[in-house]
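Section: Multi-chain targets

For targets with more than one molecule, the full set of components is provided together so that the structure can be written out for the assembly as a whole rather than chain by chain. Components appear in the order listed by the source. The example entry contains three components.
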Amino acid sequence: MQAWSLEFLPLLIVLSSLLPGLLIFTLKEQQVALRTSLNLLGVVLKLVLVYVMWQGVKAGDNYEFRLAFLPGADLILHADALSLLFVVLSSVLWLATTIYAIGYLENSPLRSRFFGYFSLCVSATVGLALAGNLVSFLLFYELLTLATFPLVVHRGTPQSLAAGRRYLAYTLSGGLLLMLGVSLLHLLAGSPDFTPGGYVLPLLATEGALLKVAFALLIAGLGVKAALFPLHGWLPQAMVAPAPVSALLHAVAVVKAGAFGIVRVVYDVFGVEVVSSLDLAWPLLFLAAFTILFGSWCALAQQDIKKRLAYSTISQVSYITLGVALLGPLAAVGALVHLVHQGVMKITLFFCAGNYAETLGIHKIRELNGVGRRMPLTSVAFTLGALGMIGIPPAAGFISKWYLGLGAAEVAQPWLILVFVLSGLLNACYFLPVVYRIWFGVQYSAWPAPQRFSQRLETHWMLLVPPVFTMLLILLMGLFASTELSPLSWSELIVEREFSFDD
Amino acid sequence: MLSFYLYLATAALLLGVGSLGLWRGPELLRRILALNVIGAGIFMLMVSLAYRPVLYGEPADSVLHALVLTGLVVAVSATAFALALLGRLLARPQ
Amino acid sequence: MWPAVLLVTLPLAAALLMLLWPRRARVLHFAVAVGLLPLAVSFLLQVTVSGEQQWFLGNWGPLLAIRWQADGLTTLLLLVSVTLHLLVSAYVGSIQRRNPLPAAFWPLSNLLLASLQALWLSRDLFNLYVCLELLGMVAVALVTLSGDKALRPALDYLLYSLFASLCYLLGVALIYAGYGVLDIPMLAGQLEANWLNAVALTLMTLGLMLKAACWPLHLWLPAAHASAPAPVSALLSALVVKGPLFILYLLWTTLAPAAFLPAAAYLLASAALGAMLFGGIAAIRTPYSKSLVAYSTVAQLGYATLALAFILRFNLPEFVAAMWLFVLSHALAKAACFLAIGELQHTLGARQVEQLKGASQTMPLAMFAFAVAGGSLIGLPPSGGFLAKWALLLGLWQSQQFFWLLALVVATLLSAAYVFRVVVLAFDRAAPTAPDFSPQRLPQYLALLPALLVWVMAVFSLPLLTLLKQEL
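Its structure, encoded as tokens over all components, is:
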């Protein structure tokens, strides 16, 4: 690798969506072809660059871009194995979501604004994944809030404005807590690059109390986006946004940013050793376990498809937090691989929910009766996603839950197995009846608002391809988990690098 | 010596009268006048301070005289401006 | 010395010439405004390279002469004033066809600039009084440009301002009575902690706080700033209220005896707390969009006052950096806010916040400018406001002021609430307010420019801190 590409590749990856996004803002509403090609050009370019970087990181190259920012804290974009996991996830899913959004928003107004912010949102996510220290992370975390807000309120209805206000109230408060934590830690330890094993160990003896405060502030700030109980209130309400935005919020950008941040803080800032010697993992563990059960329980009561999916996200994302809080290598593998699997499964479910709503006007679960015959492909995708969420073997979800269970056993927390079993049962309780209705329910009334998008296909092809694509990903990730290309082996590589300092 | 304190006391009295007028009066004209009285009090104070070296047989402090002159110019123009504004305000059709 | 002299005398001479040839006023104005910019930049570079400079005007002896001094902070303030002056003039020029300001704007804005520049440079207590008084009167005259409806707020502003100047002048007279010196560097460290000085400093502080609209002495500000024409409000909020704050800083960091500092710190800190909380709440509740921005000025000045209070209590570089970064970033951000809101108001014919519905569809550029500038007011990275808040946070953590950290969090949330109160409405698609005429692009871009500048500021944090001579 040449030196310049080692330095500028991370920047180019961020710019590959940022620049098209900024250009799209200047386009007129009617310039559909130009806008679409700009969008796709950005996506493809990003995927190519990410592939190059992936190969490089596997070979041990060190990608790093630095820019002077605050005194003592540069703006750093750095590619390590962990950031690459998130970068690959978000750029692949961005491809699917972009195609879906182009189809979904066909003929709706204000598309230039929408796609502009859409690209900014992905740029912020990728920047956040590549952020090399806490200050850079904070920067992209806040930019992500700003870029997603216009998407949440895109419809401009009173409900979406209310949801937008709530979203801002939660995320800006979270960002502020994060800023407090980052500034405290900056004062105590400076803002060095993220280091496997953390960098605060020398302070353990002298500044234990302040370290605890900093940890609490950071986790509270990140917990807002990760929808950790009791900071989850914004997520169900944000469902009024258009389906591609929900998909983005739940699978790619916002919720994942919070979970990813928790991973970073625990492994690369504080380090397993400090977290365990300060007894910081326990509260996080209990909170995550409670959120898992609480989210599932709430999902059970929802009659709206997207609302049920939203509460399911609250529950599923906490698996990641839980796996991190267990502090063992196997649990860490489970957490990281769940970051990917949950993203792919949840985006499939949201694509399908969007298809039902767009094609037939279905929003409620009871309206799904018999939809399997009318929209078979979408329904197969939905079924696979749901089965994966429950953790039934051929789908990807099984892998992550298996590792999480092993991890819990490894650190001798068998009561967590009970939590997993209980949550699995609850998952089954709120997903299986939906699947049953889709395939075996008897349609008792006409579809609420049917539309004909295509003569041969069940819906618009741009709405159909993304869920089928992600459904295949679910299957492949589940079936070929042991191959070298799978997220599982990549997660094992990360954990090997993160935990290697122990041995 | 006595006259020096007399001047000082007069300055203080003017300050007091002006402040009282400013505090009491809701009418704008009264407030403008009150501000002028306060200004006069401050200039009186400065002039009496300039007179202090004379008590010890030295020449009066000309710096203070210069300051008072400058201050007077500023005060006159400010008052003129305030009165002009007040005039426009009162002439405004209701 | 020449750049400094020209920075003051050029606008002053221009103002006088404009009175003689009113028909040439605009040409002259832009020639001077454009010419001043390279002058200010070169002066800043000169001071950066060769260090602090000072002169005694007219070659009088140190006791008689007025001392001018230019350090990094002063040159930075000079540059920001010149930049905003040019920007606001360009905005006024760009809307000239649509709603022209009276011709008096041109000489008055030059006078405003001249008095402000003299204020940044001067280090003489009495000369500062003259600058303040001139600044106040010109500001009032500018407020009256929006016609009869502004007369009452303008007159109130004038009376408050005159009273404040007199308080300050009385304080100056008392100090002169004790020491016979008006030169600030010569007085530095000389003042004893006696009751006469206490009275003098109290009077001066009171007057300056009244002029700088420190809570609870801010009552004149919202009415005056909201009723002035938008470009004038931009100048007033961005620059004029910062003048007295600068004198306050000089007074308390160089003149005041150490024994008075704790009391002053408590006074300033409680004023800051009131400003941040009540200013923010008032901005959230007011129905008019321009008073929202004006109340936000009250709230934002609270941050700078808070930093000043902590400079007095703990001599940490973080607080000095925070104070001036707040002042600089607020100057840019508030100019953008007022220009954007002014543009929205004119085009949509909407004085109330509620009427800004759908502005992000009808006038995306102006709304974007407001949102971007608002981001800096909230302190979102990577804006100048973030930089200032970051410095303040570091200082507060270092001195372990947990109560003030909490206050800062609440204040930040309040500022987010009033900024997004407008932004959320702008995304309302239900019943957008239709523009009265097709929106003009140039004025909207001019509103966006300072907003972008303030976001770029953070990237240049290191040179800025070097200029302010603070290391974090």
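The longest helix of chain C spans residues 317-348.
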